[in-house]
Amino acid sequence: MKTIDPESSSSELVVDVVDVLIDVIEPAAGQTTLSLYEHVNPDALEDIVTASAEKKSDVEVRFTVEDYLVTVRSDNTILIYEPIRAQRGTGGNPCPAS
To answer: CA-CA distance, 74 to 4, in Å (whole number)?
Structure first.
C-alpha cells in the first residue's frame, strides 16, 4: 500500500500510480515505463479523486493492469492486489464449489 501526500498536485497522482505499479509488477526486460492510458483514463482518474477529496466524500476507483487489481482511493491510498491465480497457485479449480 502506498499513501499519497494529500498536498501534492493531482497530476502527481498518475505518476504515483505508475511508480507503484512498476515496483509491484516489475516489467520484463528492464522496462521502466508503463502507459496508464492502456488501462484507465488518467485525466478522469485525477478528476474523480480530486473532486471526491474536495467534497470530502469517499471514492474508490478500481481497474486492472496485467491481471493486478489497482485501487485508488480518495483518502490518498493506492492498493495493488496480486492476481487471484497467483495467490491460489497453479492447478486446481479456480472457482471451487462451496
So the answer is: 10
Q: C-alpha distances in angstroms, 49 versus 10, 37, 42, 71?
A: 8, 17, 11, 11
pLDDT, tens digit, 9 for 90 and up, residues 12-31: 777 788 788 878 877 666 66
Q: CA-to-CA distance for 77 and 72, rounded, in angstroms?
A: 6
Contact present, 60 and 72 (Cβ < 8 Å): yes
Q: How far apart are CA 18 and CA 36, in angstroms?
A: 7
pTM score > 0.85 for this model? no
